[in-house]
Structure formats: C-alpha cells, structure tokens
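Re: the request from the purification team.
They wanted to know what the chain is likely to look like in 3D before they choose a buffer screen. I agreed to run a prediction and write the result into the notebook, where they can find it.
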Amino acid sequence: MPFFAPGDDPGASFPELLRRTGLAAAHDADLRGAGSLDVPHATTCVALTFADGVVMAGDRRATSGNLISHRSMEKVVPADRFSGVAIAGAAGPAMEMIRLFQLQLEHYEKVEGTALSLEGKANQLSMMVRGNLPAAMQGMVVVPLFAGFDLLRGAGRLWAYDVTGGRYEEREYVATGSGSLHAGTVIKVGYRTAMSRDAAVDLAALALWEAADADSATGGPDALRGIYPVIATVTAEGWQRLDDDDLAQRYEAIAAEVRAR
C-alpha cells in the first residue's frame, strides 16, 4: 500500500485510492470521439422481498444489436456475504463496476474494522453509477439493482438506480432491463406480502420466463445446453444461489403449466 500525507489520505474509499495512485477506473476515461459502439448488453433482472429476505434473479443472455453475444453471462453476483448486485446495460462497464464495488466493500471493512451498513453500500454504488455518467452519455449505460439483508433491521431491502446515480428504495419488488415491463407485470400480479422463499423464487423464475417469451434480448431457460437464469436469495444466513438442478425442476413445472393452458 502506498503512503499518503495526512491531508491526502483517501481513507476508506477504494475508488479514491485508485485516483490518488493514478490508477483511474476505466469508466473515468474520456470517451469523446468514440462514436457509436456496438457492445454486449445485459438485460432483464428482478428483485423482490419475501418473509426472510430478498430474491434476486437475472437471465443469462447478452446481446450486441440483434446478435446473441453470450448465452451464459452471470448478471446477478454477490457484493459481499449479505448483499448482491444485478446489472443491466453495457456489459463491460457493468462487470468492471461490480468488481470495483466488491473491492470497495472489502477495502472499507479492512480500513474501518467494521462492515459498511446496507444503506451505506447502496450509497457507494450510487456514487459509482454517477461516475459512469460520461460513458453513459456515449451509450455505455449501466443500470444496476442492489439488494441485501439489513442486519440492523432484520429484513430484506432493495434499491433501483437511474443513469445519473439516483437511488430509489423499493418496498416490494423492482425490475430493470429490456424485459422489465413484462417481468415487472408478472411480479406485480403475483406478489404477496411476506411470501415464503419457494413462492418468491417461483415468482421470480416465472417473471423471467414471461420476459423471455416477449423480449428477444432476454434469454429463457436453455435445457439443451443446461443454462438457467441466476437466482439467489439473501437472508440472515447470507447469500445463497440456487443450483441448476433445482431451477430445472422449477422451470419444468412452469412449462407443464403453460402447456396445460
């Protein structure tokens, strides 16, 4: 670690540490003159609260224009043990932002000796989204979702963001990405207060199924390749991702219901 004078110490801010050492993040780069870039975009993520925490889910498809650039991208990842991030938008800057966010939370805990509060984490991510605004003006938009289990309140909480870094706490559910209208409508119709874990997971899975059915940029379950959406829960026990065998059974049940209709 470099040494800083007392008035120049970046403190617990990892992005500020990068700037002070001359290692600016890529999203701080000047993109003027870059023109139109056809980059992979991640689409359609949802999050909703249930009795014991939150469920986060995202499809696996990334698209470049009308082409499928990746079939197995992971858009929902843990930020730390008790929180997670889901991304929609330009895939490259989004994945870099997530890695920087993960390092920031770890750096803060090492410097301060305690973990950042859940609301503090949401604020940190808001600052990073705001820092990406110059790139967003060039089309490299990143719009994440953030959710986690608040150990102080003993409940799950979730936040949505806009491209300027504005953060908005949602009480029940939120969706982002190109299929968000369809996914959000499914959750709106099926959501109930204090749902069980299984009911919340099934609803998130159904939301992504319907989004994939109506939005070409959203990938549905691919039984042939064994590729299923990423669905995870965050509770007092921490981050837990559902395995593909579990999701295969849930999506087969959804397919059977659709065939019956």
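For the purification team: The radius of gyration is 19 Å.
Please add any questions underneath this entry.
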